[in-house]
Amino acid sequence: MAVAKEQQWVSSFQEANDTNEELTAHGKFFTCTYLLDMETKKVLIQMHAGKVEKITVDPGPLDSYQFAIRASADTWQKFSMPTPPPMYHGIWAASFQRDMKLEGDLIVLMQNLRCITTQLELLRVVGSPV
After folding, report:
1. Which contacts qualify for 87-94: CB closer than 8 Å, 24 or more apart?
2. Rg (CA), the chain
3. What helix, strand, coil percent values describe the chain, rounded to 5?
4. CA-to-CA dists, residue 18 to 28, 45, 100, 109, angstroms
5. What secondary structure letter does DSSP report for 83?
6. Dist CA 70 CA 91 (whole Å)
7. Cα(128)–Cα(59) distance, rounded to whole angstroms?
8. Which of 51, 65, 71, 113 could be 35's S-S partner, Cβ–Cβ 3.0 to 4.6 Å?
9. What does the pLDDT look like over 62-116, one tens digit per residue?
10. How far is Cα 19 from Cα 100, in angstroms, rounded to an integer?
């Protein structure tokens, strides 16, 4: 049952991303692989030209990524609310005031910041997998 729920989330997130007008307009160079570490669940997202190429839930230890955004399940749940509480509204607020950590090649994160921000805001529509 949990696998079906995960697959439904993956499909919903991919559809929300691939039909998002802002990501379509700004995503031409949004090509990277990154990890969302949600404490009890990890999600590896591979992007190519603004479209989701592949999403892997709970990737293996040899699956590579350029950067990771790590936080507790509680932080991701609050971050994913339609109207998040104060200090859960963005990755900078959550990293400065909560337990969110940004790791890896942060240059790639910064090069894609507008698209990453838009993409993470889609969690407020489709929800968090945790």
Report:
1. 90/117, 91/116, 91/117, 91/120
2. 14
3. 45, 20, 35
4. 12, 13, 26, 19
5. S
6. 10
7. 17
8. 65
9. 999 999 999 999 999 999 999 999 999 999 999 988 799 999 999 999 999 999 9
10. 28
